[in-house]
Write a structure and sequence with these properties.
This protein is an alpha/beta fold. The chain is built from twelve helices and seven strands. Helix 1 packs across helix 3 and helix 1 crosses helix 5.
C-alpha cells in the first residue's frame, strides 16, 4: 500500500477469491514498506536467515498466506521496529488474518469490490465515513437495508421471482452480519457523517424510516465508540465533498497503510497513494467540524422522528 498506486475499480467481473483478507494484506504491506525503507531486497532477508525463502516472504508481503505471530515479530524487529504498541498491533492483525472469513458463504451475493471493503474494515482501528444519499451500511436496520436491496441490481442469472427475492434476502443478511463489527469487544472507532438529505428521504416509508432514525439516535446516545453527525442543509455549498460516499480506513500498524474507499454505481475504487489519502482525510475532518454537535445531532434526529410519527 506504500507504492503510491491507486487501486483500480473492482467490479462484479473480478474473482473475489483473488482478493486477500484485509488483516493479512495490511500486515504484509506494512512489512514490505519496512523492508524497502531499510534498503533490503527479498533475497537479503532470506540470506539473513529471517525467512526460509524468497517465495515465502513474497507470500507474506502479498497477504496470501496465513501469518504466524512469531514470523511477523521476527521480520518487524529485523527491520528495526522497537515500539511495543506497533509490535502488539502487528501480532493482533496477524492473528486476525488466520480467522475464518464469515463472508465465504455469501460470495454469490458479494461482488469483488464489496468483499475487499469487508475484509479491510474488519482489520481497521478507525473508520470514518461520509454519505450523502443513504444511511451508512454499518448502521442500517434490516428493514431499511431490505428496501435498498429491492432496488439493487438483480442476479441476472435467474428470472425466477422467488430466487430473486432469496438473493435479496441474502444481501440483507450480509449487511446485518457486517454490522456485528461495531459490536465486538475490539470494535473500531466509527465516525459517520451524513448529509441531512439522508434523514429527510423516507426510504421504505414512514415506519421503516422512523425505525432507522431511532436506531441512529440510540447508537449515538449509547455506543461510546460510534459517533454520528449531520451536515445540515444550512451549511450550503461548504458541505460539498469530492464524492457522494467516502470511507476512510485507518489501521493500527501504521498510518502509511491507511486507505480510502470511494463508492460508485455498482462498484468501488480504493486510494492508497499517501497524498490522496491525506487529502480525503482532510476533507472528512473539515466536513466534520461543519456538522452538528452531538446534542444538535440528537435534537435533529428527534425532530425527523417526530415528523414521521404524524
Amino acid at each position: 500500500m506504500s507504492d503510491g498506486q491507486v487501486l483500480r475499480t473492482v467490479g462484479d467481473s473480478d474473482d473475489p477469491g483473488s482478493l486477500p483478507a484485509g488483516a493479512g494484506r495490511v500486515v504484509g504491506a506494512h512489512l514490505r514498506r519496512l523492508r524497502k525503507e531499510q534498503g533490503l531486497r527479498l533475497a537479503d532477508v532470506v540470506r539473513a536467515g529471517v525467512v526460509g525463502s524468497v517465495a515465502t516472504l513474497s507470500r507474506i508481503e502479498n497477504g496470501t498466506t496465513p501469518l504466524k505471530a512469531n514470523m511477523v515479530l521476527d521480520l518487524a524487529q529485523f527491520y528495526g521496529v522497537t515500539s511495543e504498541r506497533q509490535l502488539d498491533s502487528l501480532v493482533k492483525l496477524a492473528s486476525r488474518s488466520r480467522e475464518t472469513l464469515w463472508w465465504e458463504e455469501f460470495r454469490d451475493v458479494i461482488p469483488g469490490w464489496l468483499e475487499r471493503l469487508i475484509s479491510v474494515e474488519t482489520a481497521a482501528e478507525e473508520i470514518r465515513t461520509y454519505e450523502v444519499q443513504y444511511v451508512p451500511g454499518l448502521l442500517q436496520t434490516p428493514e431499511y437495508a431490505r428496501v435498498l436491496a429491492q432496488h439493487a441490481l438483480p442476479d441476472i442469472s435467474s428470472d425466477d421471482a422467488d430466487k430473486q427475492q432469496a438473493w435479496r434476502e441474502r444481501v440483507v443478511r450480509v449487511r446485518q452480519r457486517r454490522r456485528q463489527l461495531l459490536h465486538e469487544a475490539d470494535a473500531p472507532n466509527y465516525y459517520a457523517l451524513v448529509d441531512e438529505a439522508v434523514l429527510a428521504r423516507p426510504i421504505g416509508g414512514a415506519a421503516v424510516m422512523r425505525q432507522q432514525l431511532r436506531e441512529l439516535y440510540n447508537l449515538e446516545e449509547n455506543a461510546e465508540h460510534i459517533h454520528i453527525r449531520v451536515l445540515p442543509f444550512s451549511v450550503g455549498d461548504e458541505a460539498m465533498a469530492p464524492a457522494p460516499s467516502i470511507t476512510y480506513l485507518s489501521f493500527p500498524a501504521d498510518r502509511e497503510e491507511d486507505m480510502v474507499y470511494l463508492e460508485v454505481h455498482n462498484g468501488g475504487s480504493y486510494l492508497t497513494n499517501t497524498q490522496d489519502v491525506d487529502r480525503h482525510r482532510l476533507v472528512l475532518t473539515t466536513l466534520w467540524h461543519r456538522a452538528t454537535t452531538r446534542d444538535e445531532t440528537l435534537a435533529l434526529l428527534q425532530r425527523y422522528i417526530d415528523g414521521l410519527a404524524k
